[in-house]
Amino acid sequence: MATQLIMPQMGESIAEGTITKWLKKVGDAIKRDEPIFEISTDKVDAEIPSPVAGTLIEIKVQEGATVAINTVVGVIGEAGEKGATAPAVAAAPKAPEPAPVAAPAAAPPPSLAPVRAPEPPVRAPRPAAPVEATGGQVESFEERIRRRSSPLVRKIAQEHAIEVGEVEGTGIHNRVTKNDILSYLENRKAAGAPAAAAAAALEAPTPMIGRAEPALAPRPMISVTDRDEVVAMTKIRKITAENMILSKRTSAHVTTVFHVDYTNIAKIRGKHKDAFLEKNGVKLTYLPFIFRAAIQALRQFPQVNASIDGENIVYHKDIHLGMAVALDRGLIVPVIKNADEKSILGLARATQDLAERARSKRLKPEEIQGGTFTVTNPGVFGSLFGTPIIPQPQVAILGVGTIEKRPVVVTDEQGQDALGIRTVGYLALSFDHRLIDGADADKFMASLKTTLESGEFDLG
Question: Is 320 a catalytic residue?
Answer without folding.
Answer: no
